[in-house]
Design brief:
The complex is a heterodimer of chains A (109) and B (870). Chain A has helices spanning 11-19, 27-37, 46-58, 82-108, and strands at 25-26, 62-68, 74-80. The two termini of chain A are 28 Å apart. In chain A, 29% of the residues are buried. Chain A is globular and about 55 Å long. Chain A has four helices and three strands; from the N terminus they run H-E-H-H-E-E-H. The longest helix of chain A is centred in the C-terminal third of the chain and has 27 residues, at 82-108. With 870 residues, chain B is of the alpha+beta class. In chain B, a hairpin with a 2-residue loop joins strand 2 and strand 3 (180-187). The two termini of chain B are 61 Å apart. The chains are: A alpha+beta (109), B alpha+beta (870). The A-B interface holds A 26-28, 45-47, 50-52, 54-55, 57-60, 66, 69, 71, 73-76, 83 and B 2, 5-6, 9-10, 23, 26-28, 30-31, 33-35, 37-38, 56-58, 62-63, 66-67, 69-72.
Chain lengths: 109, 870
């Protein structure tokens, strides 16, 4: 396995929204889903994850509810709101444009 | 929508702070527990798993802090806690807090009072629905005057309807009702329908009712003040110029018409004929509601065409040259002229606020120096500069909030006091007419107060906050200040600023004082005591002189323009033997005019009653006119070629004359504006009492003013009840002419006095703090042999230097700003050198005297204790 790389600026929100697009997750769940989705390339540290979750909840993209984890513990679950879905679509489109442009630039070099 | 959601979320969190903290704690702990469980599942022991989980999360408390930092409402919370801290700090030194709050409150209060007046006259729309669509209309003429309309022109514009949805016509009317002078208006019958203002009681008149109904709507304030809120006012019959008029309604409270002078009653134009002899030609002002689909330029263009067509039949000088539209949505329209007049006033008031801010900055500086150790320790412990400045500014906001409240209180009190002072000091004949618009606090005033407060906080708080936090780590740990903002430099700046402001205001004040002296000290060379200006109109005028003579009033003169009520009218005069055209002042008077006002004859003769009757081509001139027209020659028998000036209302009897002969010369006197002094030129034309140009009768009556006015009124009532429009003592007309100079002097004296007080306390405070800072240095000087007088000299020399510098800056600004006010009030000389010298010297001496006490104290201090305590 390659060593994990640092998250690029702006990609954290996109990854979190993507991770939550399949259903609600608690903090650790989000972190694991991101790791799993990126085949271990990205690891989200709690120092970045929780402030981001709180910020996104304040922005109205996420909503949180208290529920029970697999380990039968009380945990806070996040799920996407309609605004979050729209945000994911917008960020995905933006990312594809950027990555396409960069891939193109690198390919032509 | 998103912003609303965020705001809701922020508010929820702020209101339920403990739940938010509990949730955060639960969330982080549950995360760590989950990590621990997962490590145990991977085969670690419970303790080891727990340690690894905590390490992996980077520490529970740190993680919580990182989350808190991501909350946007966190900043609000910090501000609130800073504010709380600020209030607590101020409560530790209540005397200083009180001084600061009162000083800033005073500056804010005076400025808010001024703004309230400005707002009421210039900014606040009238209490009329859709006031912004109201425009006054006239056409400009070649003669330079705005056209006054007659009924036919008014009706024609109404019918036209292409620019205005409706138009009203008004004509002012100053008369006496029930012995009270009252200001009213003749208005077209559609007035109340067009303005859509309601009534407090009764009904208004409209176009539907009989056209010759003598009805009146009375103003709410007049009903309250002059008729004692008489509940039976509607239906009451009042005598207006001798004609019985029925009061049919009371206008809605707050509605005072469309002009600067609040209207106290309205009567329909249709009853104009019995009241004023029916002359409405060229006397109506028109106000219309602009069609909503027209721009101002379009309206102006269409009205221009209409004016051209309507005026085509008039004499050439009266034909329209353009259309003039003036917004009537406020009492005084906001135009460049009003702004130019108000700028110097706002500037002077603003200076007092600036003085107050500089004063407070001095106090805060002294406090800042005393807190340098505390701030130093905090900087050493890692406090950021921005955070410290924010905290210090919040302390200032804690001061500003009560200052704002004090300011509002002072503003209200100032306005109340000013209103009372004006009513009590105005000549009584005018005090009864004087009314202010609604000056209560409104949202504009509050907005102004808040903005002024924010500006003040920045002005007085930012400098000390910047200065105290500018220390480097090394300096702050030793309790020293940054060298770039050394106390002495800042102290100098504050002292200079205060002295400069004070010098500038002192100069204004002395200039105002001297112009008041020159305005009130003028000898008019007339004796007006016991003389009354009596205005009667219409038919009664012809019989008034005889009636008053029968009643024992032997001295009666007729005059066209009452002396002192304005500038003399002018005409173009060409003296015989000269080709020069001189714009000369003139008046029309009956032969008795000179006798009643005791203007003695210098040579020749006065005109006779016959000459007055036949409007002969003879004139009497003043001595100054004789000197100006024929220097060194005998003026008697000379002739003057005369011609009316363009744009000046000239009586037809004068207009018809080409050349007049000088038959007499009278002593110089003041016929024009009192403050302008002796008339430079004055030509007296003969006037027939009872004639149409005899607008006023001057009557000498016995007894005190109240008794004399009653006697005159009773005599005129004999000719028809209520036939006197005005009966004013002539010396009150003079008093009104010089009144603005008193006002100017009072206001500038008050501003100068306050700024002087602020300067004395400020200079004293700043010098004391400076002496305190240099206690160690002064102690050493004394210890090595400096005498007490040399120490005192050292402090005083510094103070003299700063005072000179401040006063010079004040002088520079006074001279630089003088052109701004140079043409505002003709008789005020803003370049008065004596005034400048007096103010300069006065401020200088006061400033040095204010620093003498701390200088004396510093010289008396014991050097050993100074060194020990430093």
């Amino acid at each position: 396995m390659k060593p994990p790389v640092n998250l690029l600026q702006g990609t954290l929100d996109l990854l979190i929204l993507k991770a939550l697009s399949t259903g609600e997750l608690h903090g650790l769940g989000v972190s694991r889903r991101v790791e799993q989705m990126t085949n271990g390339t990205f690891q989200v540290k709690p120092g970045s994850l929780f402030p981001a979750l709180h910020r996104m909840e304040e922005a109205g993209w996420l909503k949180s509810v208290w529920g029970e984890s697999e380990g039968k513990r009380r945990a806070k679950f996040y799920r996407m709101t309609k605004a979050g879905v729209r945000q994911l679509a917008a960020e995905t489109e933006g990312w594809q444009r950027v990555s396409g442009a960069i891939a193109g630039a690198l390919g032509s070099a | 929508m998103r912003a609303l959601r965020s705001l809701k979320s922020i508010l929820n969190r702020l209101l339920d702070r403990s739940r938010v903290e509990r949730d955060l704690d639960d969330e982080i702990r549950s995360y760590v527990d989950e990590l621990t469980d997962s490590a145990i599942r991977r085969g670690m022991g419970p303790d080891e798993a727990r340690r690894a989980a905590i390490l992996d999360s980077g520490g529970v408390e740190l993680l919580k802090d990182q989350c808190r930092d991501s909350w946007s409402w966190r900043n609000l919370e910090l501000l609130a806690s800073d504010l709380q801290l600020g209030i607590r700090k101020l409560l530790h030194s209540p005397a200083i807090a009180f001084t600061i709050v009162m000083t800033i409150g005073l500056g804010l209060g005076l400025n808010t009072a001024l703004f309230t007046v400005f707002d009421a006259y210039v900014l606040s729309p009238l209490a009329i629905p859709d006031a912004h669509s109201l425009y006054g209309f006239t056409w400009s003429t070649k003669s330079g005057n705005g056209h006054m309309f007659d009924t036919a022109e008014f009706e024609s514009l109404r019918r036209d309807g292409s620019v205005f949805t409706d138009v009203v016509a008004t004509q002012n009317l100053l008369t006496r009702i029930d012995g009270n002078p009252m200001f009213g208006q003749f208005v077209s019958r559609n007035y109340f329908d067009m303005l859509r203002v309601g009534l407090e009681a009764g009904r208004h008149f409209s176009e539907a009712e009989a056209r010759d109904d003598a009805v009146m709507v009375i103003g709410y304030d007049a009903w309250q003040a002059k008729f004692g809120s008489d509940p039976a006012i509607v239906g009451r019959k009042l005598l207006l110029k001798g004609v019985p008029v029925h009061v049919v309604g009371v206008a809605k409270r707050g509605f005072t018409g469309l002009g600067a002078q609040p209207t106290e009653f309205w009567v329909p134009l249709s009853i104009h004929r019995p009241l004023a002899g029916g002359k409405t030609a060229g006397s109506l002002s028109l106000i219309g509601r602009l069609r909503p689909d027209l721009s101002l330029d379009q309206a102006r263009a269409q009205l221009h065409i209409w004016s051209k067509l309507s005026s085509s039949g008039l004499l050439e000088p009266e034909q329209a040259t353009g259309a003039v539209l003036v917004s009537r949505s406020t009492i005084v329209p906001l135009n460049p002229g009003v702004v130019a007049a108000m700028v110097p006033v706002f500037f002077a008031f603003g200076l007092v606020l600036a003085g107050a801010c500089v004063n407070v900055a001095g106090i805060l500086m002294a406090r800042a120096l005393a807190r340098s150790n505390e701030i130093g320790v905090r900087i050493s412990l890692g406090a950021g500069r921005g955070r410290l400045i924010q905290q210090l500014l919040m302390e200032n906001i804690a001061l500003a909030l009560p200052a704002c409240a004090v300011g509002l209180m002072i503003s209200t009190l100032t306005l109340r006091f000013a209103h009372r002072a004006i009513v009590n000091s105005l000549p009584p004949a005018y005090a009864r007419l004087f009314r202010l618009p609604d000056l209560s606090t409104n949202q504009d005033t509050i907005l102004f107060l808040v903005l002024a407060t924010v500006g003040s906080v920045l002005l007085f708080g930012l400098l000390p906050a910047l200065k105290i936090t500018a220390a480097s780590l090394m300096q702050s740990s030793k309790g020293e200040m940054a060298s770039s903002l050394a106390p002495s430099r800042l102290h100098g700046f504050l002292v200079i600023a205060q002295i400069a402001i004070c010098t500038l205001l002192a100069m204004c004040s002395v200039v105002a004082f001297r112009s008041r002296l020159s305005a009130t000290g003028i000898d008019t060379h007339m004796d007006a005591s016991g003389v009354y200006d009596v205005r009667v109109s219409g038919e009664v005028r012809k019989n008034a002189v005889d009636a008053m003579k029968r009643a024992g009033m032997q001295e009666i003169a007729a005059v066209w323009r009452v002396p002192w009520s304005g500038s003399l009218s002018r005409l173009a005069a060409i003296p015989s033997g000269s080709t020069e055209t001189i714009a000369a002042g003139y008046n029309l008077v009956s032969p008795e005019y000179f006798q009643i006002l005791k203007i003695s004859l210098a040579s020749g003769r006065l005109f006779s009653a016959d000459e007055a009757r036949s409007s002969s081509a003879v004139v009497v001139i003043s001595e100054a006119t004789a000197r100006r027209f024929w220097p060194g020659r005998n003026p008697l028998g000379q002739t003057i070629g005369i011609e009316a000036l363009d744009g000046v209302d000239t009586p037809d009897t004068v207009r018809s004359l080409r050349t007049v002969a000088v038959v007499g010369v009278v002593r110089d006197a003041v016929n024009g504006i009192p403050a302008n002094g002796i008339d430079r030129t004055c030509i007296y034309f003969p006037l027939l009492p009872g004639g149409k140009h005899a607008l006023s009768l001057l009557v000498r009556a016995r007894g005190d003013a109240v008794e004399a006015i009653r006697t005159i009124e009773r005599t005129l009532d004999g000719l028809g009840r209520g036939s006197a429009d005005r009966i004013d003592p002539l010396d009150e007309i003079y008093a009104l002419g010089v009144y603005p100079f008193h006002i100017l002097w009072w206001i500038s004296l008050a501003l100068c006095g306050l700024s002087l007080l602020l300067m004395v306390t400020g200079v004293h405070g700043v010098t004391s703090s400076w002496v305190n800072q240099r206690r160690q240095e002064l102690g050493i000087r004394m210890a090595v042999g400096a005498s007490a007088s040399s120490i005192m000299g050292l402090v005083l020399a510094g103070s003299v230097r700063l005072s000179l510098c401040g006063a010079a800056i004040g002088l520079f600004f006074a001279a630089a700003l003088a052109p701004l006010v140079a043409n505002q009030i003709g008789t005020v000389d803003p370049y008065d050198v004596t005034a400048y010298a007096v103010a300069f010297a006065g401020t200088l001496v006061t400033a040095v005297a204010a620093s003498a006490v701390p200088a004396y104290n510093s010289a008396r201090a014991d050097p050993l204790s100074s060194l020990r305590s430093a």
